[in-house]
Amino acid sequence: VSCFGSNPITYLAVEEDKKYFFSKLVDGAIAYTVANGVAVCVSEPICDVKDGTAIISEFMNFCRENGLSICFCQASDKFWPEFQSLGFGRIKYGDEAMFKLSGYNLAGKRAAKVRYAVNHADKIGIRVEEYRPAKKRDWHKENDIRSVSKEWLDMKKSSEMSFMLGTIGLENPMDKRYFLGYDAEDKLQGFVVFTPFLNKKGYHADVTRRRPNAPVGVMEKITISAFNTMKEEGVEWGSLGLAPLANMIDEQNRANPSEKFLDFIYGHMNRFYGFKTLYHYKKNYGPTDWVTRYLIYYPDAFNLKIAYSIVKAQNPRGLKGFIFKKEWNSSRIRAN
Description:
single chain; alpha+beta
């Protein structure tokens, strides 16, 4: 992962909910889980580009022997020629908000809302510090982090989603970085956990959580403070992660039928998952780059089986988990 992890979500391969396929021919691995008869994989093969064809071919044989279809989630363009030559298909899955840190700041209209939020956080005394559990554990800080996480999950009325999202990981932090936001009374109000990519030349905001009544601007202050700290260290890239299903159809209205179907979900299923809200939240930061991520699948035909396998991999209860959560929240809102 350290050597070959160029995709911001490659670090998720080290989470404990993964299975691993190791090549017998080259130095590489594929992190995956099995859901709905599909081997759902994290990003792309973790290997040198020159070894891509070999490990993908091995994995195809393994999946064929076990009766599994294949889907690589949030994949980049890195191995597309190799995938295409082996008969895979792909569709756009969304855009990732990326930041070239050397030239990034909050000036101008594109990040005006975040600039306002950060200024408000400054006025009310929000401060940000980095916690380094790998160097020295602080049980008080960790209890506060768990408390914020519990309040956040209670607010969302859901269990932790997995597979394409990481965990807080305090028990084994490895190379994760923890940025904490405190109010004027030194109460922890939110935190962001970053994971590395590009051999620590980039960091991805993987886990973001806050208290339900956290002051306006806390999360923005944490994120911008982290980016500024990393920029001073010479880190090249920051990522706020994927905005799923965003910008599926381009300005020329070009899209295949599967992309149009996913665009319909983006436009009409926000009751169950806040696709638009997530996209606009990331857009408010004024990313320097929007990088396209893909679903790459075999056989070469995207279908509902593959779509459901992705949902199932992230939430073991599948669609019921999302629907129950949203219906419960809607009922609570109406009651209030």
